[in-house]
Design a protein that fits this description.
40% helix; alpha+beta; 5-stranded mixed β-barrel
């Protein structure tokens, strides 16, 4: 099994990356936050979860082992597959997901594409007492603001050529969902709609 990959990003696709490791290209599915912040030509090290099927050998890459472990715990829940687990990790960071599970916040969990209320209830039921101690659960009511260092949206907009003043303006607009409320792709679309409007 492959547990870690270190190489150079040679292709960035909609939901995955191609990583060149000593001349061999590995196709690695990754959370949207990671894909959107990736740059062709940059070096990267990923913690890998390997899924072997009869017809496929699939790699899922994460920034660290904590995110990978969360992915594997989610996959262990009945009727939750890799696609659902990846959608949840694309929608919110591990700490926020752990908080939602511990609190039984099915509304927050079901914001992930393809994860309905029943699936969210099953996740809370099966994982509530199984979260590792190193999953930091945030204190209720504590907010870190609209933009945190973990939010890839400002970086994505910057790489699209927008100035800091433009980015700050759209990030502060109430029509742009907060980090964790919607998938990164939806938040990016909201920003681009605002930026396309005449100033």
């Amino acid at each position: 099994m492959i547990a870690r990959l270190t190489g150079t990003i040679v292709e960035v696709r909609a939901d995955d990356l191609v990583i060149d490791v000593n001349g061999v290209g590995y196709l690695v599915a990754a959370p949207a936050t990671l894909v959107m912040s990736a740059t062709v030509g940059s070096d990267i090290m990923l913690s890998i979860s390997t899924v072997v099927r009869e017809d496929a050998f699939l790699l899922y890459g994460f920034t660290d082992s904590t995110q990978r472990e969360a992915f594997e715990l989610l996959r262990g829940v009945s009727r939750i597959g890799p696609k659902n687990a990846m959608a949840m990790l694309s929608t919110m960071p591990v700490e926020q997901l752990a908080t939602a599970i511990a609190a039984g916040d099915t509304a927050a969990i079901s914001k992930a594409p393809g994860v309905g209320k029943r699936s969210a209830e099953r996740i809370c039921l099966e994982l509530k007492n199984k979260l590792p101690a190193h999953f930091t659960v945030a204190s209720p009511g504590v907010s870190s603001g609209r933009t945190t260092v973990a939010d890839p949206l400002p970086l994505a907009l910057s790489r699209l050529g927008y100035r800091k003043s433009e980015i700050d303006r759209v990030m502060a607009d109430p029509s742009v969902p907060d980090y964790g409320e919607q998938p990164v792709e939806e938040r990016l679309r909201a920003c681009l709609r605002l930026l396309a409007q005449p100033g």
